[in-house]
Amino acid sequence: MSLTRAEVEHIARLARLELTEEELSRFSEQLSSILDYAARLREIDTSTIPPTASVLDTGLPLREDIPAPSLDVTAVLRNAPQVEDHQFRVPPVLE
Amino acid sequence: MADLPSFNLFDLLAGLRRGDFSARELTLATLERIERLEPALHTLITFTPELALQQAEAADRRYAAWRQDDPSAGWGLPALLGIPVMIKDVLCLKDVPCTCGSRILENFVPPYTATAVQRLLDAGVVVVGKSNTDEFAMGSSTENSAFGPSRNPWDLNRVPGGSSGGSASAVAARLVPAATGSDTGGSIRQPAAFCGVTGLKPTYGRVSRYGLVAYGSSLDSVGAFARSAAEVAELFRIMAGHDPLDSTSANLPVPELHLGQRNLQGLRIGVPEEYFIEGIQPEVEQAVRVAIDQMQALGARVQTVSLPHTSYALPVYYLIAPAEASANLARYDGVRFGRREPAERMIEMFFKTRGKGFGAEVKRRIMLGTYALSAGYYDAYYGQAQKVRTLIKQDFERAFQQVDVIACPVTPTTAFPIGEHTDDPLAMYLEDVFTLPANLAGVPGLAFPVGFDSRGLPVGMQLMGPHFREDILLQAAYAYQQATDWHLRTPATR
């Protein structure tokens, strides 16, 4: 199968990735050949096979809900690209 | 400390305890060796000499208190007190940059420490740096690191493997006796094989993933490198065990590891015919088959087993891992940490930050995963892959009813030249063909050296075992290493 350029642009939009012209054409080719390779999975009849949700059968445990201090806010904000009033600052979301 | 490269972990611990040298002297010698060899090998992204010296001095105070029977030294000594290690740069260590080999996290300084790393710190290790990795652990060569590839100490024009290539190269070149790694599709075992060291990917859930930067969350495991199985066992014992901070961490006791046995009496080894495929380098097959014969001579019983869905592991992995990656890497948006590209609107900031911050392979996998999960394609790709994964897992369950371990090559070839696969992602993915199944099934895998090819490059063998039976793998490799000396061979790096 072959991914069209429009499909690659659509995926990039879903993934929030700005791609260059060169990347768009390279990725359509490379992703197509990887997906071709993956198509061999359709050879297998899996109609009665359950999907793997987890490799371990131990289930997901719940811990006791005990209040405890979380990470220090100042330490966390130190990694933020922009901070104002102890909050993350971002560019406008709406026009 | 001129003999430093010849000392293993246990020699170093014995020397520190006897007072032959101090942790500070050992650390200074280690730092000097790293400074000398690092320009050729490039094993590190972040070098931490000040931190290492602080930790070494703290270790020396602890040794001094212990020698004087000072009660504040407590009962005995921490297991790795004063031992220099490297931490793969996808594991968080508080207040030290964690880049994941990516421009997008170039300036990220984690405010907390990964559980596996904390357990090593509690055991007294000295951290000399954060080791190089393919970006977000996606790769088989370290060539996808935004900070440049590491080199293989056996041949500087060749890759050390990846993604944990910095750690493997450093242990092989005797910069440190041990280092941590992570393994999502072979990222510990493949570089261990390429560099001629021993590397363990534990059972999924055995070592906490808290503080490991997530790539493929159903596949990721944290493990270790050293020269020998006995040393790897020591690191594994310390890092393993339940952690309430990781909900997939198994609440099971870590068995005592008694690696004393020098024979393999009673061990049933299965050799999967599907792992000796066309295209495998003949010298790799030869060395692995000789090693299996040697294990037989040590008392093991060898039989053929079948893992019939092996050839589907590669397409299954390259749908599931990118799907999980596309979700995990959605967090790199320029809002809370990491790089941000300036933009007028937030949506534009997302596109620019991610477009400029991620390298080609990471983008490729995000694209692939986004596609595999997108409306209209989910069932055909991701859903089908998760079902075939069940079949792969069942292959192992059936095999382990007949045998205790599975023995096979780690990789189809020995280390390849830098640049050989960079233009062909699928060819690079084929490097992982023998290591991916263990991640898909969640079983442990151990890689260790069993010979060299005619170019003088190491060949690795892999042992895989049932869930939570790392002890069998380590014991078997220990017995093999008592009878052979491949793991003691040292590259000519000076």
UniProtKB/TrEMBL annotation, chain A:
Query: Which GO terms are recorded in the biological process aspect for this UniProt protein?
Result: glutaminyl-tRNAGln biosynthesis via transamidation; regulation of translational fidelity; translation
Q: What is its EC number?
A: 6.3.5.-
- Source organism's superkingdom? Bacteria
Reactions listed under catalytic activity: L-aspartyl-tRNA(Asn) + L-glutamine + ATP + H2O = L-asparaginyl-tRNA(Asn) + L-glutamate + ADP + phosphate + 2 H(+); L-glutamyl-tRNA(Gln) + L-glutamine + ATP + H2O = L-glutaminyl-tRNA(Gln) + L-glutamate + ADP + phosphate + H(+)
Its keywords, alphabetically, are: ATP-binding, Ligase, Nucleotide-binding, Protein biosynthesis
Q: Where does the sequence pass through the membrane? A: none
- What is the main EC category here? ligase
| InterPro entries for this protein | Asp/Glu-ADT_sf_sub_c, GatC
| An example Gene Ontology molecular-function term | glutaminyl-tRNA synthase (glutamine-hydrolyzing) activity
In UniProt terms, what function does this protein have?
Answer: Allows the formation of correctly charged Asn-tRNA(Asn) or Gln-tRNA(Gln) through the transamidation of misacylated Asp-tRNA(Asn) or Glu-tRNA(Gln) in organisms which lack either or both of asparaginyl-tRNA or glutaminyl-tRNA synthetases. The reaction takes place in the presence of glutamine and ATP through an activated phospho-Asp-tRNA(Asn) or phospho-Glu-tRNA(Gln).
Cited NCBIfam families? gatC
Quaternary structure per UniProt? Heterotrimer of A, B and C subunits.
As for family, the record states: Belongs to the GatC family.
The record, for HAMAP family, names: GatC (MF_00122)
PANTHER family in the record, alphabetically? GLUTAMYL-TRNA(GLN) AMIDOTRANSFERASE SUBUNIT C, MITOCHONDRIAL
What name has this protein been given in UniProt?
Aspartyl/glutamyl-tRNA(Asn/Gln) amidotransferase subunit C
UniProtKB/TrEMBL annotation, chain B:
What are the BP-aspect GO terms?
A: translation
InterPro entries linked to this entry: Amidase (IPR000120), Amidase_CS (IPR020556), Amidase_dom (IPR023631), AS_sf (IPR036928), GatA (IPR004412)
| A single GO molecular function term of this UniProt record | glutaminyl-tRNA synthase (glutamine-hydrolyzing) activity
An annotated GO cellular component: glutamyl-tRNA(Gln) amidotransferase complex
Task: Spell out the Pfam families in the cross-references.
Answer: Amidase (PF01425)
Chemical reaction(s) catalysed: L-glutamyl-tRNA(Gln) + L-glutamine + ATP + H2O = L-glutaminyl-tRNA(Gln) + L-glutamate + ADP + phosphate + H(+)
Per UniProt, the keywords (alphabetical) are:
ATP-binding, Ligase, Nucleotide-binding, Protein biosynthesis
Family indicated by similarity: Belongs to the amidase family. GatA subfamily.
* Function per UniProt: Allows the formation of correctly charged Gln-tRNA(Gln) through the transamidation of misacylated Glu-tRNA(Gln) in organisms which lack glutaminyl-tRNA synthetase. The reaction takes place in the presence of glutamine and ATP through an activated gamma-phospho-Glu-tRNA(Gln).
- Designated name of the protein: Glutamyl-tRNA(Gln) amidotransferase subunit A
